[in-house]
């Protein structure tokens, strides 16, 4: 939808098309497309015209009301677009993911978004806007957990539960770049995977021990939680380390803390919504050359117009089988 600049009273704010969450619930109930005021950048901020913005499980959780976000709000955390406000960044093609977007400040599922200049990172020249917008949260989460938190080193093994998902596939690619060996645990085997464990059958720990010659894995990235948490934990070697990411509300599970204490395991999590925005931009600065050199590749993409955003959200909620759902706020 074009910006309305004609027949507008001088004091009336300019309008844009945007997704707005009015109430928590399933996408058909919570996700609407309507006009909203174009944000005014504060000092030190830039106005970005959003050409592509992924829909993530985090956005679906936000729409469902699980994050406690004050409503109404424009959701969306990932973006690829062009800086249109005056300043040193004007005309730059940028990409990234904002930690507070869609929660404490308006998000990217709109034609325009205002962002601190320190949150901006140059888009890889070889990626389309849709591809760059699809990278976002999944690769940020993968890089932050695998490289910055776990400090993965060459020669290590890493078990990735939910490894067929977006974060899992990104983490596996980053692990291979780092010289480590990923073990994918899921119900679906992604293409090109050497070590795969079907979580719908068999014992996860025994399968990991078989792959690692009885040693156990050095690291676990748990993107699933729930019933897989304890067997994944027990798959670690002595002194191993494990990190988990956000999962939907689920029943409590029981496990013995002795499993952690007696084997000197290190277990932590990542709450990506609390990351510093400048730090996030730094991660994307590190990811850019990996994409430009062909070391990493963007996920498969399905694009949606903004007026079909509820259907895009529902597709993510249903599980999109390794395909990133991307909105095109500027019409694409």
Which structural class do the helices and strands define?
A: alpha/beta
- Level-2 CATH architecture of the largest domain: Alpha-Beta Complex
Number of H/I helices: 9
From the 3D structure, determine the CATH topology of the largest domain: Quinone Oxidoreductase, Chain A, domain 1
Over all CA atoms, what is the radius of gyration? 21 Å
Pick out the low-confidence regions: 1-6
Largest sheet: 7 strands, mixed
Note the run of SSEs as H and E: EHEEHEEEEHEHEEHEHEHEHEHE
Share in β-strands: 25-35%
Helix content: 25-40%
- Name the CATH homologous superfamily of the largest domain: Medium-chain alcohol dehydrogenases, catalytic domain
Provide structural commentary.
The chain folds into two domains: 15-123 and 299-328, Quinone Oxidoreductase, Chain A, domain 1 (Alpha-Beta Complex), CATH 3.90.180.10; 138-272, Rossmann fold (3-Layer(aba) Sandwich). Mean pLDDT is 93; it is low at 1-6. The strands form three sheets. Strands 3, 4, 5, 6, 7, 14 and 15 form a seven-stranded mixed sheet that branches. A six-stranded parallel sheet has the order 10-9-8-11-12-13, with helices on both faces. It is globular and about 65 Å long. The protein has helices at 27-30, 57-64, 129-149, 166-178, 204-211, 229-234, 258-261, 277-292, 309-318, and strands at residues 15-21, 31-37, 45-54, 78-83, 93-97, 112-116, 121-122, 157-161, 181-186, 196-198, 217-222, 236-244, 266-269, 300-305, 323-328. It is of the alpha/beta class and 332 residues long. Helix 3 (129-149) packs across helix 4 and helix 3 (129-149) packs across helix 8 (277-292). Strand 14, helix 9 (309-318) and strand 15 form a beta-alpha-beta unit.
């Amino acid at each position: 939808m074009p910006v309305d600049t004609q027949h507008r009273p001088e004091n009336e704010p300019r309008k844009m098309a945007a997704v707005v969450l009015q109430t928590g619930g399933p996408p058909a109930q919570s996700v609407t497309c309507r006009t909203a005021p174009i944000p005014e950048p504060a000092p030190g901020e830039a106005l970005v015209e959003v050409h592509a913005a992924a829909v993530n499980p985090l956005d679906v959780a936000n729409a469902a009301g699980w994050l406690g976000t004050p409503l109404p709000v424009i959701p969306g955390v990932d973006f690829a677009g062009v800086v249109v406000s005056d300043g040193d960044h004007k005309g730059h093609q940028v990409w990234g993911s904002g930690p507070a977007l869609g929660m404490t400040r308006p998000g990217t599922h709109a034609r325009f978004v205002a962002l601190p200049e320190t949150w901006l990172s140059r888009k890889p020249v070889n990626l389309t806007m849709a591809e760059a917008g699809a990278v976002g949260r999944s690769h940020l989460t993968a890089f932050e957990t695998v490289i910055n938190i776990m400090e993965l080193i060459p020669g290590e093994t890493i078990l990735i539960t939910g490894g067929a998902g977006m974060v899992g596939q990104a983490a596996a690619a980053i692990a291979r770049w780092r010289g480590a060996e990923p073990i994918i645990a899921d119900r679906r085997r992604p293409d090109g995977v050497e070590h795969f464990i079907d979580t719908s059958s068999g014992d996860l720990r025994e399968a990991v021990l078989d792959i690692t010659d009885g040693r156990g894995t050095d690291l676990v990235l748990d993107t699933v939680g729930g019933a897989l948490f304890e067997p994944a934990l027990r798959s670690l070697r002595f002194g191993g380390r494990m990190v988990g990411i956000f999962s939907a509300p689920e029943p409590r599970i029981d496990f013995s803390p002795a499993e952690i204490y007696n084997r000197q395991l290190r277990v932590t999590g990542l709450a990506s919504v609390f990351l510093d925005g400048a730090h996030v931009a730094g991660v994307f600065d590190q990811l850019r050359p990996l994409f430009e050199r062909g070391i990493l590749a963007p996920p498969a993409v399905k694009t949606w117009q903004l007026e079909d955003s509820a259907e895009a959200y529902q597709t993510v909620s249903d599980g999109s089988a390794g395909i990133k759902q991307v909105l095109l706020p500027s019409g694409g």
